[in-house]
């Protein structure tokens, strides 16, 4: 059931994104300023949907990273606050770091595939008897 809701949310996001892109192509988005570039908002929306529908800690981290990168894309492509690609690239590092921190925090409440794999590997190493040397 949970997977069906997740797929439905992604489907709705894709439908709305397609409609918005078509409307933008035909100049029907009158509420946006002329020349506004909003494709980064689609990246932000994908990140937010990832956070809301997350079932694993990794997904939360990825969602935070995508959301912040999308916000950065919107700011840079619209030249807001004097930001350009060449002077604001360190914000990509901030987005990656925030995603890593969000992953670590989310691991307290959600399953963490990486942590589980490390534990499984350590357990297997302890349980494997050492082979006799010839």
According to DSSP, the number of beta strands is: 0
Low-confidence stretches: none
How many separate domains? 1
The succession of helices and strands, N to C, reads HHHHHH
Helix content: over 70%
Shape: elongated
* Beginning-to-end CA distance, first to last residue: 56 Å
Characterize the largest beta sheet: strand count, sense, and whether it forms a barrel.
Answer: none
Q: What is Rg?
A: 21 Å
Residue share in β-strands = under 5%
Overall pLDDT metric = 82
Helical stretch count? 6
* Oligomer designation: single chain
Structural class: mainly alpha
Kindly list the characteristics that best describe this protein.
0% strand; 6 helices; mainly alpha; elongated; single chain; 134 residues
Please give a structural write-up.
By secondary structure, the protein is mostly helical. It has one domain (2-127). Helices cover 71% and strands 0% of the residues. It has 6 helices and no strands. The chain has helices spanning 2-25, 39-52, 57-77, 85-88, 90-106, 113-127. Helix 1 runs antiparallel to helix 2 (39-52), helix 2 packs antiparallel against helix 3 and helix 3 runs antiparallel to helix 5. The longest helix is centred in the N-terminal third of the chain and has 24 residues, at 2-25.
Produce a short descriptive summary.
By secondary structure, the protein is mainly α.
């Amino acid at each position: 059931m949970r997977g069906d809701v997740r797929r439905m949310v992604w489907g709705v996001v894709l439908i709305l994104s397609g409609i918005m892109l078509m409307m933008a192509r035909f100049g029907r988005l009158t509420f946006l300023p002329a020349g506004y570039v909003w494709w980064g908002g689609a990246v932000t929306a994908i990140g937010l949907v990832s956070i809301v529908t997350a079932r694993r800690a990794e997904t939360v981290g990825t969602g935070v990273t995508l959301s912040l990168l999308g916000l950065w894309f919107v700011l840079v492509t619209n030249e807001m606050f004097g930001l350009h690609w060449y002077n604001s690239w360190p914000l990509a590092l901030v987005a990656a770091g925030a995603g890593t921190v969000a992953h670590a925090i989310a691991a307290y409440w959600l399953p963490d595939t990486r942590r589980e794999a490390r534990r499984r590997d350590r357990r297997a190493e302890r349980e494997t008897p050492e082979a006799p040397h010839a």
